[in-house]
Automatic annotation (TrEMBL):
Name of this protein: Glycine--tRNA ligase
PROSITE patterns reported for this sequence: AA_TRNA_LIGASE_II
Record-linked Gene3D superfamilies: Anticodon-binding domain, Bira Bifunctional Protein, Domain 2
All residue ranges annotated as the Aminoacyl-transfer RNA synthetases class-II family profile domain in the record: 5-476
Chain sites annotated for binding ATP: 193-195, 203-208, 320-321, 439-442
Function: Catalyzes the attachment of glycine to tRNA(Gly).
Stored CDD domains: GlyRS-like_core (cd00774), GlyRS_anticodon (cd00858)
Gene name per UniProt: glyS
Source domain of life: Archaea
Length: 580
């Protein structure tokens, strides 16, 4: 469906609005209107069902303003830059890679500024607004900076991703998970990027919502306990090699993708599949979903493998809506170095390792009388020394000088070198991190775009029943007091039973059906004169427009089956007569 048509409905019916319209608006900010906010919450709660309930991860919530240290360690202060260029005439700014892509169709993401400047000049790219010449390309940091505290001495940033809020309390999280890998922590919340001239609606916002999972694993165990259950599931992949050779995407099974080394691990593959399952479940058709691997030029230097989940759109082509990466130990290692905190995890070997180790021991009968009260200190210090170095010094100089608070001179007779066996139970390592990073706003855009249907003179959002913002509409057939009263009672009763129910009595019944279809309400309950006598109502299904007559007292139970348990409307035919 066309972008313009869907966005028009979304605006008109209260899904998405440009923010601050009365002050002429600011690019890159949107309001979720009443229906948009309901839809967004339902999608985020469905996400929680997948990642918290089914995968067993835990959610946490961290501040959105963070001190500079966090982003120095994460690399955002130095590297979170986009290439920028400006029109020398009208001063309009552009993201250099995007303007090249728009005009030439070339994918230049990740190229150096110098190279982008050359392409702008070679391709004679000019300002799309006024035709003026563009400047050389320079790096522009995307983070919003702020000052923390009344005197404003401490630099802070609005977080550009939720992930860092999970890495910084890693030590506490590790203790919460009883020091055992693997474990996963998720965060849903706002992220901020001061995007250069965002012109793509909800796709490129300056304030947006992410749902991210950080899965901490032993680097040697990138598996998933349920991988065998998805081995034969198909994935549409666009590997880096195919992109470089201008080949088409391929469709292969999850098992094959791992066996052929196209995706780097079972765990990453599982998370690609899970992301697709989630998207299909919330109503995005499988045909418009594909996975594109990052090219070596665009992948972060520390990542082993990275895939974008992309959705096909008629206006913007394929757009990234989720990034899924193996970030290795980069984040924890870097936070450990910057904070001087030990963020390693002890990994126990399956079988303890026995190793032989040379040790230095002091001969008590020599050291005792020689150094008296300092002897204990010297014995302890010797334990930590490398026997090789001590031996070498003894050989070369005939003595070894031990530097403590003062210098103690030791000779060969004072020491004994012995080989001892040591049992090593495990080692301390930095875990690796697998990160699925969902952009909720882009997901909502994709859903609106691909669920909007136009058929036989009517339009509707084909939202899955448990995602639809309004779940049921109660409509009196005509605007007569007795019917209105019964309809209002039914609506109240449904609300008390936890349904998002709406009442509408204005206009013809046909117009009202059209109105509720337009916002994707899956079911309508119509109250007519007969209802007053036989206490039955008509239940109408949005997608088929079929109707069934059911007793009012059964309504809650039937709607629970349909909306919460996703029972098929068609299945009501076992107990009731369905009419066209
Ligand atoms: N400016 C934005 N507006 C809306 N969503 C965004 C924005 N930037 C990122 N996201 C969402 O967050 C997800 C994860 O962020 P990530 O850092 O991987 O994006 P990205 O690769 O920087 O995106 P892009 O290349 O489009 O700028 C993206 O897949 C996207 O859905």
């Amino acid at each position: 469906m066309s972008h313009e048509e869907v966005m028009k409905i979304a605006r008109k019916r209260g899904f998405l609005w440009s923010s601050f319209e009365i002050y002429s608006g600011v690019a890159g900010f949107v309001d979720y209107g009443p229906l948009g906010a309901l839809l967004k919450n339902k999608i985020m709660n469905k996400w929680r069902e997948y990642y918290i309930i089914k995968e067993g991860f835990y959610e946490m919530e961290s501040p959105t303003v963070m001190p500079e240290e966090v982003f120095k360690a994460s690399g955002h202060v130095d590297h979170f830059n986009d290439p920028m260029t400006q029109c020398k005439e009208c001063k309009e700014v552009y993201r250099a890679d995007h303007i090249i892509e728009e005009i030439t169709g070339r994918d230049v993401e990740g190229l150096e500024n110098q190279k982008l400047t050359e392409i702008i000049s070679e391709e004679k790219i000019r300002c799309p607004r006024c035709g003026g010449h563009l400047t050389h390309v320079w790096s522009y940091n995307l983070m919003f900076q702020t000052l923390i505290g009344a005197k404003g001495k401490k630099i802070g940033y609005l977080r550009p991703e939720t992930a860092q809020g999970i890495f910084t309390p890693f030590k506490r999280l590790l203790r919460f998970f009883r020091n055992k890998l693997p474990f996963g922590v998720v965060q849903l919340g706002k992220a901020y990027r001061n995007e250069i001239s965002p012109r793509q609606g909800v796709i490129r916002l300056r304030e947006f919502t992410q749902a991210e999972a950080e899965i901490f694993v032993n680097p040697k165990e990138k598996t998933h306990p349920r991988f065998h259950t998805i081995k034969t599931e198909k994935l549409r992949l666009h590997p880096a090699e195919n992109q470089e050779k201008n080949k088409k995407p391929i469709t292969i099974t999850a098992g094959e993708a791992v066996e052929k080394g196209i995706i780097s691990s079972e765990l990453l593959t599982y998370h690609l599949w899970l992301a697709k399952k989630f998207l299909v479940d919330i109503g995005i058709p499988e045909e418009v979903i594909r996975f594109r691997q990052h090219l070596p030029t665009e992948m972060a230097h520390y990542a082993i493998d990275c895939w974008d989940v992309e959705i096909k759109t008629n206006r913007y082509g394929w757009i990234e809506i989720i990034g899924i990466a193996d970030r290795t130990d980069y984040d924890l290692k870097s936070h450990s170095e910057h904070s001087k905190e030990d963020l390693k995890v002890f990994i126990e070997y399956e079988k303890p390792k026995i190793i032989k180790k040379e040790t230095i021991q002091a001969k008590m009968d020599k050291i005792g009388p020689k150094f008296k009260k300092d002897a204990a200190k010297i014995i302890k210090a010797l334990e930590g020394l490398d026997p090789k170095i001590v031996k070498k010094e003894l050989k070369e100089n005939g003595q070894f000088k031990l530097e403590l608070d003062k210098t103690y001179t030791l000779i060969e007779e004072d020491l004994e070198f012995k080989e001892v066996e040591k049992t090593i139970k495990g080692e301390r390592i930095f875990p690796h991190v697998i990160e699925p990073s969902f952009g909720i706003d882009r997901i909502i855009y994709s859903l609106l775009l691909h669920s909007y249907k136009k058929e036989e003179g009517r339009t509707y959002f084909n939202f899955p029943v448990d995602i639809a913002p309004v779940e049921v509409a109660v409509l009196p057939l005509i605007n007569k007091e007795k019917l209105v009263q019964l309809a209002l009672n039914i609506k109240e009763d449904l609300r008390n039973n936890g349904f998002i129910a709406e009442f509408d009595a204005s206009g013809t019944i046909g117009r009202r059906y059209a109105r509720i279809d337009e916002i994707g309400v899956p079911f309508a309950v119509t109250v007519d004169h007969q209802s007053l006598k036989d206490h039955n109502v008509t239940l109408r299904d949005r997608n088929t427009t079929k109707q069934v007559r059911i007793p009012i007292k059964e309504l809650t139970k039937i709607l629970e089956d349909l909306l919460k348990r996703r029972k098929k409307f068609q299945d009501l035919s076992h107990s009731y007569k369905i009419q066209n």
